[in-house]
Design a protein that fits this description.
Order of helices and strands: HH
Strand content: under 5%
Shape: elongated
Radius of gyration: 42 Å
Number of strands: 0
Number of helices: 2
Distance between the termini: 109 Å
Helix content: 40-55%
Length: about 100
């Protein structure tokens, strides 16, 4: 039993020769019969089981608070670093004065 995989060249396949596996074979139906065999289904109405708007709003609030706190902390750190740098500069001046024995 030989199974032919491709159609021979030059020959066109008609509906009656087609072995596409369509069940039922749509080539045998008339246009009126096709209309009655089509099932039209309404899409399912999906009800939201959970409202994500409140969660998103809470998440947004948390992120904004995190950024505000981070910004405040960075400002405090910069102020602290600036004051420490001023203290170090003052100490360097004092060391220069003491080591040179005079004014800078």
């Amino acid at each position: 039993m030989s199974v032919q995989r491709t159609p021979p060249r030059g020959n066109s396949i008609t509906c009656s020769e087609s072995t596409g596996g369509s069940v039922p074979n749509l080539c045998t139906y008339k246009n009126d019969e096709l209309r009655y065999n089509v099932n039209i289904r309404k899409r399912k109405d999906r009800t939201e089981e959970y409202d994500y708007k409140q969660d998103f709003s809470d998440f947004k609030t948390d992120i904004m608070k995190l950024f505000e706190d981070f910004g405040k902390m960075q400002c405090e750190n910069m102020t602290l670093i600036s004051s420490k740098i001023s203290d170090i500069r003052t100490e360097i001046k004092n060391i220069k004065v003491l080591s040179c024995g005079g004014t800078v």
